[in-house]
Structures
1.
Amino acid sequence: MSHPQSSHPLPSPCIIDTGIIINKQDIGRLLTDLSRVRYIHSLDGKVQNEGEGCILEVFYDPHRSTMIANHTLYLNVQSFDYLQLNQSSKNETLFDLIQDNRQLRLIPLSNPLQEQYTPQLNADALEAMVTRVLSAKWDVQIDDDGECPF
């Protein structure tokens, strides 16, 4: 038995302030916008660790770990099954990263509306710029070391 195919595709989900996000790209986009956070790590509903830190990297790689140390967070979207967005009683947005019986709750400490926008340099772009500058400097040094043919 076949079902008739609809000529209209289903609309994409629309999540506003609360909901469950399973798409890894969408999770990454939400987490990338965070900077300073308070985190609460729970296993089976029992708090294991909590603290504050800065999110330095959000990535998607099945061979790398999510790491939190020294007030820095490196978040691998692949480490979690989904993200649940909620609002606290204080009207804070809660980002709950869930994987089986583990929950990593992120509570933003910075507000993008209150912070002045400053473009962040991509690490790869910065490395490429430094490489070009050093390469140009070495070219100048090599030219200076050679004798002038005139």
2.
Amino acid sequence: MTRRAVPLFALAFGLAAAATAGAQQPAPPPDHSPQVGTMAPDFTIPGATRFGVLAQPVHLADLRGKTVVLAFFIRARTKG
């Protein structure tokens, strides 16, 4: 092998490896997050206060025009 053949072979191998590596990258997952300013879909959830669960469920449609903050407490009312 001549001195000139080694760098050309290395260059060809490097380019082939780079092309293969780029083709194997998975596509990023689609973004399903809501955009700023879009209206939330209507939903119904059981409401709760510090005294317990409310008798009537809460409908988002009943709160239109008001500021709504949803808070989730994963271990609330559990032994964990």
3.
Amino acid sequence: MSVEIYVSKRPGYTQARRHNRVPASFPVRVVSNSSLRLADEARDVSEGGIGLATNSPLTPMSLVPVRLELPTATEPIEVLGRVMWATDTAMGLRFEQPDVRLSDSIGRLRAAMERI
């Protein structure tokens, strides 16, 4: 007598990024529970997301409005972000809404970093 055991696999989430990150250092304002957080700073950024240094990371999978003040943009860019991971001093956000201004500004930031 033989017994066969089937293990169904749940669909997994991949951590693979579509866009390479650019090292960065600029202020980022994240709104959480209607309160403005001022202590967040970008560590890296791409067209798809941003890594932040922060003193108060948010819960993974939270949706939060984000205001980016990119050095290559003429005005702040507001996008919706999802917290994908968090540690005691950092968190990573995925941008949920594509924005042409964001892509253009990050493209200029990437070009500037390549010249250095």
